[in-house]
Amino acid sequence: MNHVDAATTYLAPMRTASPCAVPEPPTTRRPAQVSAARTARTAAKTIGLVEAMKRVRLGELAPEVTLAETSLERRIRAHLERAAVRVTLTDNRYTMISVRRVPRERRYEVRLHHMFAEADPVITRALARYIADNDRDASRVLGDFIDGNHAAVRGKNRRAPGALMITTGDTHDLRAIYDDLNARYFADRIEAAITWGPRTGRPRRRNSIKMGSYSVEDRVIRIHRSLDREFVPRYFVEWIVFHEMLHQVHDIKVKNGRREFHSKAFLADEASFEHYRQARAWERRHLDALLTY
Fold first, then answer.
1. The domain at 170-293 falls in which architecture?
2. How far apart are CA 149 and CA 151, in angstroms?
3. Residues 6+ apart with CB under 8 A from 123
4. Among 43, 245, 265, 289, which one has the highest count of C-beta atoms within 10 angstroms of its own C-beta?
5. pLDDT recorded at residue 264
């Protein structure tokens, strides 16, 4: 992406001088010097913001984070018509952008990696288009921006998953479910991205369905779109998400030459889910409806 600095044109005020006086040229800075200074300021702000976010995780107040979030909200909202935007900056190494849309209220709750805190107008415009309309061109612009700023991501030695993820479905909000489960059962120790699987074509009856999956390498949880329907209760979606989160707790062991994905310890932990029996009973009763999607 090319970035062009706007040149400033000005007229110096006239002053009385002797005929022999030679006016001194205004002090100017070369474009490279301006760019280097801007880069240094941005780097310093980023470092300060990351340190402030660490204090927030420890339960301390950090006005720098609030100011950065408010500033980014204002810059994104400038490209939207009558919409409310709530930005939360994160240091998440797996999900760079997460959007929760509330269309009826024209409200958007967005989690953005802190690399966006000092984003220029081109990027904030792309954010607005992606947040409101899931615009494909904006998605590509943001993807390029993320690739170019990947050094800002902790754990960058790990291969990054898909950077842009929409967690809000037509009925269920995966981000809210994941956050709630992470706090209740895992003391917020699970670090993974979560997203709905791709939409399919016309409804049809399937022979089987993989309701959830977990990628060990990318740390990405994907939930089948069949679960994002009004007749599917939240506790059932929670059970599926809980199951996939457990895969980050339990290593895959090899037993008799075969990989064991669900050990006895895994199954025992899964049974600790509050609505475990209820969810399994609901699945047996509604499996046919889940297979038709």
1. 2-Layer Sandwich (3.30)
2. 5
3. 116, 141, 142, 145
4. 245
5. 92
Separation of CA 207 from chain center: 34
Spatial neighbors of 106 by CB under 8 A, at least 6 apart, are: 82, 83, 84
Residue 9 clears pLDDT 50, i.e. is over it: no
Alpha helices, DSSP H only, in 247-292? Answer: 264-270, 276-291
Reading the block at residue 217, the tokens are 């390498």
| Chain-centroid distance, C-alpha 292 | 31
User: For residue 107, what are the β-bridge partners?
Assistant: 84, 102
Backbone angles phi, psi at 252, to 5 degrees: -85, 115
**How far is 220 from 192, CA to CA, in rounded Å?**
6
| Both structure tokens of 106 | 């024209």
Weakest-pLDDT range from 157-161, 202-206, 214-218, 262-266: 157-161
Q: Which amino acid is at 235?
A: Y
Percentage of residues in the chain having pLDDT higher than 90: 39
Q: Distance between CA 76 and CA 78 in Å, rounded?
A: 5
- Whole-model pTM over 0.90: no
Question: How many whole angstroms separate alpha carbon 97 and alpha carbon 129?
Answer: 13
Two tokens, residue 215: 């990628």
The residues near 46 (Cβ < 8 Å, ≥ 6 apart) are 114, 115, 117, 118, 152
Q: In terms of Cα–Cα distance, which of 96, 192, 136 is closest to 88?
A: 96
In sequence order, the 6+-apart residues with CB closer than 8 A to the CB of 284 are: none
What would the two tokens of residue 93 be?
Answer: 């190494």
